[in-house]
Amino acid sequence: MFRNIPTITKNLLIVNFLTFVATWILQQRGINLANIGGLHFFMASDFHLFQFVTYMFLHANFTHIFFNMFALWMFGCVVENVWGPKKFLFYYISCGIGAGLMQELVQLFDFYFRITAQEPSVSFSELFVIGQQLSQQLNGWTTIGASGATYAVLLAFGMIFPNERIFIFPLPIPIKAKWFVCGYAAIELFSAIGSSGDGVAHMAHLGGMLFGFLMIRYWNKHPDSSYNRSGGQEFFDRLKNNFERRRGTGSHMHAEQGGADDLRDDMNYNARKKQNQEEIDAILDKIRKSGYDSLTKEEKQKLFEASRNA
User: Fold this and answer.
1) Any idea which of 106-120, 197-211, 283-297 has the lowest mean pLDDT?
2) 89-145: per-residue pLDDT in tens?
3) CA count, 13 A, side-chain hemisphere, 138
């Protein structure tokens, strides 16, 4: 099964788990990798720009990494197959950085409110001077985890296949992807508003989804952009090759059975298969010319069903 996972999703899973193991081993030797690669508040003395990337490969415990990687595997495989590896990697990393930026903004306002609660006369410009003085103490504000990026992948799945039904424990019935995404976003929003000090970066999760939403909307409005035009090309070419390979061997498999009824069944079967192949070819040609987002709802559904049977 692991061999069927697309390249980028597979490598992201491997890197995250290897980093988690390395974090545990180094921690036994007194080295805290989260302090080095975790995203610090930008006023802290240990803040570095590279942490906007490294923080999303670090996790606090097994539960943290398990649920993030499970979501990445569950939805990332589908999204990467549709978009292709380059576009998917760009989206994943960009949304992870966007989630980090959102977290930094939230921490800035949190810091401001904490200071003004003690000294109401402090202006916003003076905040940076105070932050410089407290830079060592601010190192405690550190964010780690791939949640912002994985939430963005979840959003992408919901926007690509909004009406695809998925089973989510403990719900007894399947739910459409678009409502699942909206529900998750609502939970995170209410958690961000209602919870305090729970150690979860809820706004970073929403930040990843927000950046993902804006990016997908931009791609939808600019179908000729390089990422959108090439997105999923390898997947669709591979899909077409699978259909052509099956079409070339199907007639031989049925022709050997003999008999008038078998021959008639073969002719009907091959006619239906030819018609279906022509429809798939037309959809693939449309993608090459205008991009995936130019497809109608029916064409996307037909392509999705065909990919599952390929």
Assistant:
1) 283-297
2) 999 999 999 999 999 998 998 888 888 888 888 887 888 888 888 889 899 899 999
3) 25
E-strand ranges in the chain read: 39-40, 142-143, 165-166, 175-176
Supply φ then ψ for residue 142, to 5 degrees: -125, 135
pLDDT band at 269 (very low <50, low <70, confident <90, very high): low
Cα–Cα–Cα angle for 94, 238, 1, rounded to 5 degrees: 75
For 166, list phi and psi in degrees, rounded to 5: -130, 150
The 3-state DSSP class for residue 176 equals strand
Please, what's the b/e burial string for 192-204 (b: 16 or more CB within 10 A of its CB; e: otherwise)? beeeeeeeebbbb
C-alpha span between 86 and 177 (Å, rounded): 24
**Alpha helix stretches (DSSP H) within the chain:** 7-28, 33-37, 51-54, 62-83, 85-118, 127-133, 147-160, 177-194, 202-221, 226-230, 233-255, 260-290, 297-309
284 token code pair: 């693939």
